[in-house]
Amino acid sequence: METSTFVYDGDCAFCTQCARVIERWIPTGARVLPWQFADLDTLGLTAAECEEAVQWVGVDGVRAAGPDAIARLLGDSNPLWRVAGAGLRFAPVRAAAWPAYRWVARNRHRLPGGTAACAVPSAGRD
């Protein structure tokens, strides 16, 4: 693996729309790709992990999920986005980010751009 990788759910229209925003507005050297087209074995990921949350696999081998993965992606960008990524890693913000991320993940089919295909499988719901 020569570059870091950010993996999202390509079956979800909301997630795909978010990935388009990343590709357009966040300059990063990381690959941004749907897990359905990623070599999960090479990345050391499972489909279950990818269905649960976005994933980051750094070129340095560091793995992160959910808002931690987003923080890593932002940290791999230009200085302005790196500040946002550092803010997301700040303990009080990070503590709030996980419940917010889980809420979005559970309700992504209801969010703008979301479809019924975006619904998290029932096994992944709280």
Automatic annotation (TrEMBL):
An MF annotation (GO) of this entry: protein-disulfide reductase activity
InterPro entries referenced in this protein's UniProt entry, alphabetically: DCC1-like (IPR007263)
Domain of life, source organism: Bacteria
Pfam family, one: DCC1-like
UniProt-recorded name of the protein: DUF393 domain-containing protein
Species annotation: Micromonospora terminaliae
